[in-house]
Task: structure prediction
Amino acid sequence: MPDMSASASLAMTHLVSFAKEVDEDKVTPGVLGFIVFAAMALAVWALMKSMSRHMNKVDFTQAPDPEAEQAEQAEQAEPETADTETSGQGKQKQG
Result:
């Protein structure tokens, strides 16, 4: 396995020599870059604040659905009648 510190130091020497060749005046973002970054930060802050307000308005409690309750009651009632019918038929055949 190669020595990682040697390859890292070699990469750093190449990067440092490249950084010395680049003109510092052409690379800096300047005032325009700061203004754009600040505007984006303010936009994100405003969106998060708005989202927080809207999420606080949401009521997460769920009201029971009357149709679903009726369907559950109907399903519970059907197996009871089916059990009595099948047990009655079984008795008739035996007797």
Q: What stands out?
A: Residues 19 and 26 are 12 Å apart (CA to CA). Residues 66-94 form the longest helix (29 residues).
